[in-house]
């Protein structure tokens, strides 16, 4: 009886070991958490598509998207090692990397994998709020962006520099969209989906007439001088939405960064898969159609790239600027 039992146990162990060695099983697969943003944002949909590209084209990786509070929240999660890769804006990621501004006492070291779009920061207001210029926001209830996000941090800094003082109302995207619809706040700042208004802004516009407030020439010059990591963007009439005229606003590049734990080979395979995908990401986020992620990454990044990204870009013949190589 004992010999039969030993035989049975041995058989089960060997069979289990065989299962472990089978290709396609979940054993040995690296689970990867992807910090995105609010699920109501178009950028969330982009990261769902990017994760699908990774899962399809990078063997041994299983990426899952996590809803977060966008860049600033993702940086906090990086510092706690709660995510592996995540959405960042290049201006805030650079500040965190170099220990500047809000990160002077607590730098957060991440490295950029790729940049996929330049995002205008749209000052979206109810048309009946009678906000024709930024100065008209003084004293009005207004949301600067998702609580804890790069948009919120940047908006506070810019409006302070422009001497505009709304009555700031913090909150999540869902809460603020409802508040705008209910006329409890005049408006909010929201990253565009490329030049298009974000899905949450289009949701508001379905039943509530809106305006997008433009910078004037002096304000644009102030931003260009005091915030060199930002860009001033001219959005043509009808580009953001058919009912929205031409306007000028600030913006930053949006991309994906990795924590310092990611090895060169894994980062290389992820960047290669993302940069060589021509359909899936564009289907989820139209503004990336035809975009060259390598060129955008080299142009808009302002802190070191991950060595895996550098390896892939050099294979494609790129010359990596000194500012993007860690010394």
Description:
- There is one protein chain.
- With 327 residues, the protein is α/β, with parallel strands linked by helices.
- It has 2 domains: 29-119 and 254-324, D-Maltodextrin-Binding Protein, domain 2 (3-Layer(aba) Sandwich); 120-252, D-Maltodextrin-Binding Protein, domain 2 (3-Layer(aba) Sandwich).
- 39% of the residues lie in helices and 20% in strands.
- The radius of gyration is 23 Å and the shape is globular.
- The relative contact order is 0.17.
- Mean pLDDT is 91; it is low at 1-5 and 7-26.
Low-confidence stretches: 1-5, 7-26
Q: Overall mean pLDDT score? A: 91
- Tally of alpha and pi helices: 12
Span of the ends, CA to CA: 67 Å
Topology order in helix (H) and strand (E) letters: HEHEHEHEEHEHEHEHEEHHHH
CATH class of the largest domain: Alpha Beta
CATH architecture of the largest domain, by name, is 3-Layer(aba) Sandwich
Instruction: Please identify the structural class as seen in this structure.
Output: alpha/beta
CATH superfamily of the largest domain: Periplasmic binding protein-like II
CATH topology of the largest domain: D-Maltodextrin-Binding Protein, domain 2
Largest sheet: 10 strands, mixed
Shape: globular
């Amino acid at each position: 009886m004992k010999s039969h039992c030993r035989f049975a146990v041995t058989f089960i162990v060997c069979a289990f070991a065989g299962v472990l060695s089978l290709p396609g099983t979940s054993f040995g697969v690296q689970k990867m958490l992807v910090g995105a943003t609010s699920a109501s944002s178009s950028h969330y949909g982009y990261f769902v598509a990017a994760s699908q590209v990774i899962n399809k084209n990078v063997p041994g990786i299983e990426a899952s998207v996590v809803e977060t509070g966008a860049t600033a929240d993702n940086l906090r999660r990086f510092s706690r090692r709660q995510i592996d890769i995540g959405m960042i804006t290049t201006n805030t990621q650079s500040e965190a990397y170099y220990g500047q501004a809000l990160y002077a006492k607590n730098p957060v070291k991440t490295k950029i994998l790729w940049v996929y779009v330049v995002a205008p920061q749209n000052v979206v207001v109810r048309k009946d709020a009678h906000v024709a210029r930024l100065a008209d926001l003084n004293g009005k209830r207004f949301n600067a962006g998702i609580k804890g996000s790069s948009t919120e941090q940047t908006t506070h800094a810019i409006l302070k520099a422009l001497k505009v003082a709304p009555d700031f109302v913090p909150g999540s995207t869902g809460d603020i969209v409802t508040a705008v619809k209910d006329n409890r706040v005049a408006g909010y700042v929201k990253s565009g989906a490329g030049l298009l208004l974000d899905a949450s802004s289009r949701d508001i516009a379905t039943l509530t007439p809106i305006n997008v407030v433009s910078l004037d020439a002096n304000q644009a010059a102030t931003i260009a001088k005091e915030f060199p990591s930002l860009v001033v963007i001219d959005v043509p009439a009808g580009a953001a939405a058919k009912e929205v005229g031409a306007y000028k606003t600030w913006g930053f590049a949006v991309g994906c960064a990795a924590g310092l734990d990611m090895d060169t080979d894994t980062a290389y395979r992820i960047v290669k898969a993302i940069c060589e995908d021509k359909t899936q990401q564009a289907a989820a986020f139209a503004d990336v159609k035809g975009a060259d992620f390598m060129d955008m990454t080299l142009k808009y990044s302002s802190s070191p790239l991950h060595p895996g990204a550098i390896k892939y870009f050099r294979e494609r013949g790129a010359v990596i600027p000194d500012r993007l190589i860690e010394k």
